[in-house]
């Protein structure tokens, strides 16, 4: 049987993608196969009605193959599937820092491999993701349409040049963690001011939810929305002044730059492992 989608690496992001496809009716469970070394992860996908396997080459029976493995494992995975990969397969990778060229080269044999690189983020788990797509040298418009269909049930999808993907990884791929970090510390501040854990958590979560809705629901810039809350001589101004004095804005910019640098480093490390034949998986 030929499947529509074969998943190599059945992690949480792959699970979010599959749940979105099934919920939207874009694919049926019997049209997807998932492989993973973890029996626990296979069980999660089996519960969704999918065929599962511990053999990655089984997932290559699908028209589109989704590589959902950690960047440091990509070399080993490509080496394992390359001999069995058919030239008519579309390959979509969500591994941070791994270029389409590296995947093309890893599949080898001088084939004109059709590869699309994607960077999703974890809000896909709740249908609020954003995904950037970059096409490799041999990917077609039809391939991009297919890739969009994988992610659109749970995300806004945009196409970008591949040289922007490390920046996108840093801004939106890792981005949810920055918001969670801020929320963590807002809750801590509330507790220190006398609120209970439940009160602080509910207040901050609802505030974050409302602020996010305002960001996406209006054409106003974040700076303008902040200005409207910040009355001269008021409480918000006092808080923002401390943030600015402590260099919070600069820290955010530097943190995102560090994430982009790490994405580039992951790509270089993967290329070096391929060049030396070394694998760090396991």
Describe this structure in words.
It is a single chain. This protein has 11 helices and 8 strands. The two termini are 31 Å apart. The protein has helices at residues 12-24, 39-47, 74-81, 100-107, 141-151, 165-173, 175-192, 197-217, 222-229, 235-245, 248-276, and strands at 3-8, 32-35, 51-53, 62-67, 90-93, 114-119, 129-135, 155-159. The protein folds into 2 domains: 3-160, Rossmann fold, CATH 3.40.50; 175-246, Orthogonal Bundle (ProC C-terminal domain-like fold). An 8-stranded mixed sheet has the order 3-2-1-4-5-6-7-8, with helices on both faces. The protein is α/β, with parallel strands linked by helices and 282 residues long. The longest helix is centred in the C-terminal third of the chain and has 29 residues, at 248-276. Helix 4 (100-107) links the parallel strand 5 and strand 6.
Write the layout of secondary structure elements.
Elements: E1 3-8, H1 12-24, E2 32-35, H2 39-47, E3 51-53, E4 62-67, H3 74-81, E5 90-93, H4 100-107, E6 114-119, E7 129-135, H5 141-151, E8 155-159, H6 165-173, H7 175-192, H8 197-217, H9 222-229, H10 235-245, H11 248-276
Parallel strand pairs: 1-2, 1-4, 2-3, 4-5, 5-6, 7-8
Antiparallel strand pairs: 6-7
Helix pairs in contact: 6-11, 7-8
């Amino acid at each position: 049987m030929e499947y529509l989608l074969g998943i190599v690496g059945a992690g949480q992001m792959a699970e979010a993608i599959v749940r979105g496809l099934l919920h939207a009716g874009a694919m049926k469970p019997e049209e997807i196969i998932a492989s993973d070394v973890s029996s626990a992860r296979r069980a999660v996908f089996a519960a969704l009605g999918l065929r599962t396997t511990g053999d990655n080459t089984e997932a290559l029976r699908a028209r589109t193959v989704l590589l959902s493995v950690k960047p440091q494992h990509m070399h080993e995975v490509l080496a394992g599937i390359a001999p069995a990969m058919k030239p008519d397969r579309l390959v979509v990778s969500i591994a941070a820092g791994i270029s389409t060229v590296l995947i093309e080269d890893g599949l080898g044999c001088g084939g004109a491999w059709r590869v699309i690189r994607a960077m999703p983020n974890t809000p896909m788990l709740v249908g609020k993701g954003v995904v950037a797509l970059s096409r490799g040298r041999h990917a077609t418009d039809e391939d991009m349409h297919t890739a969009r269909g994988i992610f659109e049930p749970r995300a806004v999808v945009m196409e970008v040049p591949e040289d922007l993907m490390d920046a996108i990884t840093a801004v939106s791929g890792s981005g949810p963690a920055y918001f969670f970090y801020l929320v963590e510390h807002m809750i801590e501040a509330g507790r220190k001011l006398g609120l209970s854990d439940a009160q602080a958590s509910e207040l901050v979560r609802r505030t974050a939810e409302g602020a996010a809705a305002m960001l996406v629901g209006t054409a106003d810039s974040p700076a303008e929305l902040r200005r409207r809350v910040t009355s001269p001589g008021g409480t918000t101004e006092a808080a923002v002044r401390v943030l600015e004095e402590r260099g919070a804005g600069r820290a955010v910019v530097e943190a995102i730059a560090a994430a982009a640098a790490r994405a580039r480093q992951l790509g270089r490390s993967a290329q070096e492992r391929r060049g030396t034949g070394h694998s760090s998986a396991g």
